[in-house]
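User: Design a sequence. Structure:
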């Protein structure tokens, strides 16, 4: 018999918050399993005692949490860690590839929308990579990697904001709408494939469900860049591309700040 404690965490709404909670609880040896329900903002902790320490660690993150229930359970804990690693490695490789593709084509076509979307792909790669590193690494090493990843991502987002502002103020070349649309369609197909892979894993584990939500958001961003490319064609203006670029850079910055919190 072990303890099963359920927490309501009101401010947990993306993989970054989940990763922060995982790291915060990583040093508590009494914990056997963490089961996240991101959509309903609930966390189920399977543990052997020390509920006070667990609650205190979660409360330190200030995610507006409260303990719903804590009771003994005879549930069996079983995880297909190997299968999950394979899926995460595959979506990591896909995201890393499309980061390179979108960054290159974005610079060549002068599209800030593609450049911003490439950084969003990079942000995904960081999240997947941190999840994989966490499997066999110490909390200290994970924090160090999180800091490096967060600062690097924040630096790139800052450069992106500067370039958006520069292009908005100065008259610059209109981006190639054909490249924007074609590459975004390919990225959309890639993210859809990633989502299908994650769904086919049929995993109820936290990081897998969170990854599905993260990838679903990426699909929305891909549609946004496609719409921006279409508006560039219709308006013969760079403004739609700069707007979508700025929006995605805001999303990337938020992700970077959340990743940096992991290093604290």
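Assistant: Done.
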């Amino acid at each position: 018999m072990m303890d099963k404690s359920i927490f309501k965490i009101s401010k947990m709404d993306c993989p970054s918050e989940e990763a922060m909670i995982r790291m915060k609880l990583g040093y508590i040896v009494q914990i056997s399993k963490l089961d996240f329900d991101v959509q309903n903002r609930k966390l189920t902790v399977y543990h052997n005692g020390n509920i006070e320490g667990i609650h205190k660690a979660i409360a330190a993150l200030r995610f507006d949490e409260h303990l719903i229930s804590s009771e003994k359970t005879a549930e069996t804990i079983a995880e297909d860690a190997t299968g999950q690693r394979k899926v995460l490695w595959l979506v990591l490789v896909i995201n890393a590839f499309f980061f390179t593709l979108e960054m290159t084509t974005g610079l060549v076509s002068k599209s800030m929308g593609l450049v911003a979307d490439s950084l969003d792909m990079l942000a995904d790669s960081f999240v997947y990579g941190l999840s994989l590193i966490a499997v066999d690494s110490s909390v200290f090493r994970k924090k160090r990697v999180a800091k490096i990843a967060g600062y690097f991502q924040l630096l790139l987002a800052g450069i992106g904001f500067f370039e958006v502002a520069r292009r908005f103020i100065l008259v610059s070349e209109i981006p190639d709408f054909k490249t924007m649309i074609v590459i975004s369609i390919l990225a959309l197909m890639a993210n859809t494939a990633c989502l299908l892979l994650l769904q086919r894993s049929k995993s109820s584990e936290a990081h897998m469900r969170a990854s599905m939500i993260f990838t679903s958001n990426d699909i929305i961003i891909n549609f946004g860049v496609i719409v921006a490319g279409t508006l560039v064609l219709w308006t013969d203006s760079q403004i739609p591309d700069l707007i979508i670029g700025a929006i995605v850079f805001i999303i990337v910055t938020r992700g970077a700040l959340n990743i940096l919190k992991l290093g604290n």
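The beta strands are 2-9, 31-37, 42-47, 65-73. The longest helix spans residues 139-169.
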